[in-house]
Design a protein that fits this description.
The protein is built from seven helices and five strands. Strand 3, helix 6 and strand 4 form a beta-alpha-beta unit. The two termini are 29 Å apart.
Length: 215
């Protein structure tokens, strides 16, 4: 059996020399090159100060996004970097209008707590009504895609769901939900934090209008 070609990168992560690291979904193992990059960033800040913004910092969010874009099947200039998924979700929520009758946000009861908390607190302040679709077992470990589709209608502004549920690794069949969103004129935001880098992800093939993720 041929060796996994990705194994050549293993020495680049010091923690893997003494640890079986299984929590990359919370904080990725740091590559050796990160220390050098951070040092260069600090040196630029120390020596160039505010001029660094015009000398590359302004563009860094998009240039780094272009490096990540192939991982999610996105085009150049369509991916931007933000501090974390919760902030990205907040930016997305606050960029939309929730005018009745199209003022509903549909989500699952198995969403990551910070995302659900954000939607249930910021959403109503923006005029949205949040509809939480319960999981079949009521435990957030799975999802019934047909049940999600049933609640998407002309009142739905945004469907904000995870590609893979964080509690159980349950993979949603996004295609049916995306199709219902298109028919009803709703937007689909997909949280791919648990799927990017683990299973193939293509924002276009999945039919999502927005995709957020992390490492």
């Amino acid at each position: 059996m041929a060796a996994d070609p990705l194994l050549r990168f293993r020495p680049e992560f010091p923690i893997l020399e003494k640890t079986t690291y299984l929590i990359s979904n919370s904080l990725g193992a740091m590559p050796r090159g990160a220390a050098t990059a951070l040092s260069e960033y600090a040196e630029t800040w120390a020596t160039r100060g505010v001029r660094a913004w015009a000398e590359g910092w302004w563009d860094m969010s998009v240039t780094v996004g272009d490096e990540i874009a192939p991982l999610v099947g996105a085009g150049a200039g369509t991916v931007a970097m933000l501090p974390n998924v919760t902030i990205a979700a907040a930016v997305l929520l606050s960029s939309l209008e929730y005018r009745p009758p199209r003022n509903r946000i549909v989500m699952l009861d198995g969403e990551f707590p910070t995302i659900r908390y954000l939607c249930e607190t910021l959403g109503p302040r923006l005029g949205a009504k949040v509809i939480v679709v319960p999981s079949p077992g009521g435990d957030g470990l799975s999802a019934d895609e047909s049940r999600v589709c049933d609640v998407i209608d002309g009142r739905t502004a945004l469907v904000a769901i995870s590609h893979v549920l964080f509690k159980s690794a349950f993979v949603l069949d996004v295609a049916a939900i995306a199709g219902k969103c298109r028919r009803e004129g709703a937007l689909l935001a997909l949280d791919a934090y648990q799927s990017v880098g683990t299973i193939p992800v293509s924002v276009g093939a999945l039919g999502a209008d927005f995709l957020v993720g992390g490492v």
